[in-house]
Each structure stands twice: as C-alpha cells, then as structure tokens.
Design brief:
Elements lengths: L1 E6 L11 H4 L4 H11 L4 E6 L3 H11 L5 E5 L8 H9 L4 E5 L21 E4 L4 H9 L2
Parallel strand pairs: 1-2, 1-3, 3-4, 4-5
Helix pairs in contact: 3-4
C-alpha cells in the first residue's frame, strides 16, 4: 500500500508555530514515528506553501497511490482549486486538521475540500494523521 501525506502552508513550522494550538513536535520527527508504526505501508511526505504545487502533487499521485492524507492548512478555507482537484482524482483522500477548526475563528469552519474527501479527522493533534492512516487499513 502506497500513501502520501500532503501538508500545506505553514505546516513546515510545526514545533515552532503557535505551540498552544499545534504542539511542540515538528512534523519530520513525527513522520518517522508514523513510518515505524506503519512499516507495512509505503509512506511518503510532501509539504508546500504554494497552492499550485499542492495541486500538481495531487494530480501526480491521484491516480497511482492507494491513499492521500491532506492537511491543506489555510488553503482548506480558500482553495476551490484544491477542492476541484481532489474531486477530479481517483485516489481516496482523507482531510486532516491538527486543531479543532470549529473551535477557532469562524472563517475556519468552511472547507472547500471536505465535500470531496472520503473522511475528515479534526482536532486530535498530530495523532490525526495516525487515525487517517488507520482508516486506509
């Protein structure tokens, strides 16, 4: 099984950015934990702060991978393009958010991605990625 985690803008700052919301661990070290825990899965990771690069990556893997986990960060609430891309590909996608977006600012309550994914995991910190991986098993 081949699964990719795609993180959007500012998620490269995990461990440094707003630790009261996102925690103290950087994603690269957490990804190593996931690789160890899910050693039976070919696991890949991609992060970009650029909307078009995320769309390009979704198109590249969206017909050949077994699963995609996406945390589009702020693009969740603004990108019709990412939502349309997910609707266009064949690989199932799980949307993930580290924080509970519904307990935050009102603009974070809208997702242009959610209508096009197989499921959504919100608010369990970095464990949200673990739960998303489990959903593919």
């Amino acid at each position: 099984m081949k699964i990719i985690i795609i993180n959007g803008p500012n998620l490269n700052l995990l461990g440094k950015r707003e630790p009261e919301i996102y925690g103290n661990q950087d994603f690269e070290s957490y990804f190593k934990i996931l690789e160890s825990k899910f050693s039976n899965i070919q696991l890949f990771y991609y992060q970009s702060n650029v909307e078009g690069e995320i769309i390009n990556k979704l198109q590249e893997v969206g017909f050949v991978y077994d699963g995609i986990i996406i945390n589009a960060g702020a693009y969740t609430h603004t990108s019709v393009g990412i939502g349309d891309c997910i609707k266009s590909i064949k690989t199932p996608v799980v949307e993930v958010h580290i924080s509970n977006t519904f307990s935050r600012e009102t603009f974070r309550h809208q997702s242009y991605i959610s209508p096009n994914v197989k499921g959504i995991i919100i608010g369990f910190g970095l464990q949200s990625y673990d739960l998303a991986l489990q959903s593919f098993l």
